[in-house]
Amino acid sequence: MSKYVIKGGKPLAGDVIINGAKNAALGIVAAAIMTDEPVTIENLPDVWDINVMLDAIRNMGAIVDRIDKHTVRIVGSMCRSIVEDENMRRMRGSYYLLGALLGKYKQAQVPLPGGCNIGSRPVEQHIKGFRQLGAKVEITYGGIFTAEATELKGSHIFFDIVSVGATINVMLAASLTPGMTILENVAKEPHIVDVANFLNSMGANIKGAGTDVIKIRGVEKLHGSTYAVIPDQIEAGTFMMAAAATKGDLLIKNVIPKHLEAITAKLTEIGAEVIENDDSVRVVATERLTSAQIKTFAYPGFPTDMQPQMTTLLALSNGTSTVTENIFDNRFKYVDELTRMGASIKVEGNIAIITGVSKLTGATICSPDLRAGAALVIAGLVAEGFSTVEQVEYIERGYEEFEVKLKSLGAQIEKVSDDEDEDRVARKMSFAG
Ligand code: UD1
Predict the structure, then answer these.
(1) Which amino acid residue places its CA nearest to atom 35 of ligand 1?
(2) CA-CA distance, 131 to 199, in Å (whole number)?
(3) In angstroms, what is the span from residue 304 Cα to ligand 1's centroid?
(4) What is d(CA 306, CA 235) in angstroms, rounded to the nearest whole number?
(5) What string of pLDDT tens digits covers the 433 residues of the chain?
(6) Cα of 121 from ligand 1 centre, angstroms
(7) Which of 31, 186, 192, 239 has the fewest CB atoms within 10 Å, measured from its CB?
(8) Residue with CA at minimum distance from ligand 1 atom 39
(9) How many CB atoms lie within 10 A of CB 78?
(10) 164: CA distance to ligand 1 center in Å?
(11) Is-cis flag, bond preceding 190, omega within 30?
């Protein structure tokens, strides 16, 4: 385990380049094994979740060649339909292999996914979708998810709730399912459109991704493709929040500003300046920001994956804010850590009531999950004195070289292993100014 030692108080300034979207890439890597022909994926983020997914498909028999840090070539012709990698339990996106394998081989066996501990994460919508395509689905002893079918057949599926994972998973299987599948009440996140675009580049026939209804005419087989993953909306949003919280000035490059609209709107509302260019956004904050009411919703609403970062920003803003978490039932665990730094936040059910304070004070805090970990780093960048953020492995699941990027923007942050003496690192940072 590693930790970040942070000396707070420096505004972030400069340019930062955003990597490919982790959540799109998880679906795309799974989809890549659905063809026997070579697939080249570009702009793939070099983060833990993706590397575990690549290892898993390698263990299943796929050939995975890393052409450079952000490009891989995958040949899925030798893939088996059984996923044995126990690491897959530690990440959410592993369930996409179920849809991919079911579509390609009509059978799949995958360990039940885990991922961030942000509340109960049921999968009954995935199961419902697969069953409607004609598969027999079971969760067997030990949490192994199995799906098989003698024949799959296109179907009209109405999801009971809007789920990113179920939408992508059933879309994967339906791409190779004979007949027409109509998915209603689907999620519309940018990464759903990206996975659909990738599948279409392999010869799938998917229409309507990004709207409430997706129509998929199953094709007999998919072919090879070269495809670049879209930029990561959440990584971009995190740097936007870091710029605003530190009263900095950041040019955030390689983004699709349209995907950031909900974040941009809230930042502008509380007094930050956001300048949109074609493929970059600049965020400038000079004054203390004001309060806001935030409610997380599925896209195009305010993303739940930006909730902890936004709460951190509002903890420092003037006035009383509320943040309502509508997607996950246990996503305020980091609030205790912020409180220990001096924030004034009360959580009642799924609502955080935040009374803005003028400063935070450095403390030793622990990342409870990926996005909350990033939020605590932002708190550390603003806090007076030194902070230590523990369990940064969570952060590394989804942020590539987070501390390296922050350092290049002027932050005083060092990654140290758990057995290193953090006081010595802090003293060194003090001398550095
Ligand atoms: C994905 C993202 C995650 C993001 C979330 C919401 C990936 C790998 N992860 O997670 O970062 O926070 O979307 O934008 O892309 N639900 C059910 N039954 C189901 C499926 C979901 O009740 O069968 C519920 C969930 O518990 C949750 C809500 O639906 O309350 C949304 O979940 P979903 O959109 O499926 O999120 P994930 O795909 O797990």
Answers:
(1) 163
(2) 22
(3) 10
(4) 9
(5) 899 999 999 999 999 999 999 999 999 999 999 999 999 999 999 999 999 999 999 999 999 999 999 999 999 998 888 887 776 776 777 889 999 999 999 999 988 776 556 555 688 999 999 999 999 999 887 778 899 999 999 999 999 999 999 999 999 999 999 999 999 999 999 999 999 999 999 999 999 999 999 999 999 999 999 999 999 999 999 999 999 999 999 999 999 999 999 999 999 999 999 999 999 999 999 999 999 999 999 999 999 999 999 999 999 999 999 999 999 988 999 999 999 999 999 999 999 999 999 999 999 999 999 999 999 999 999 999 999 999 999 999 999 999 999 999 999 999 998 777 777 777 677 656 5
(6) 7
(7) 192
(8) 165
(9) 11
(10) 6
(11) no
| Token output for 148 | 């098989």
Question: Relative to the CA of 299, which ligand 1 atom is closest?
Answer: 14
Q: How big is the CA angle at 242 (ends 238 and 247), to the nearest 5 degrees?
A: 150
- Strand order, beta sheet including 344-348: 293-295, 320-324, 351-355, 344-348
Ligand 1 pocket test target in 127, 130, 164, 329 with most atoms within 8 Å of CB? 164
Distances from the Cα of 149 to the Cα of 14, 56, 292, angstroms: 54, 23, 50
0.85 surpassed by pTM: yes
| Tokens representing residue 38 in the block | 């070579």
List beta partners, residue 387: 6
The closest alpha carbon to 193, from 233, 153, 237, belongs to: 233
Specify which residues 386 forms β-bridges with. 7
SS (H, E, C) the chain: CEEEEEECCCCCEEEEECCECHHHHHHHHHHHCCCCCCEEEECCCCCHHHHHHHHHHHHCCCEEEEEECCEEEEECCCCCCECCCHHHHHCHHHHHHHHHHHHHHCEEEEECCCCCCCCCCCCHHHHHHHHHCCCEEEEECCCEEEEECCCCCCCEEECCCCCHHHHHHHHHHHHCCCCEEEEECCCCCHHHHHHHHHHHHCCCEEECECECEEEEECCCCCCCEEEECCECHHHHHHHHHHHHHCCCEEEEECCCHHHHHHHHHHHHHCCCEEEECCCEEEEECCCCCECCEEEECCCCCECHHHHHHHHHHHHCCECEEEEECCCCCCCCCCHHHHHHCCCEEEEECCEEEEECCCCCECCEEECCCHHHHHHHHHHHHHCECEEEEECCHHHHCCCCCHHHHHHHCCCEEEEEECCCCHHHHHHHHHHHC
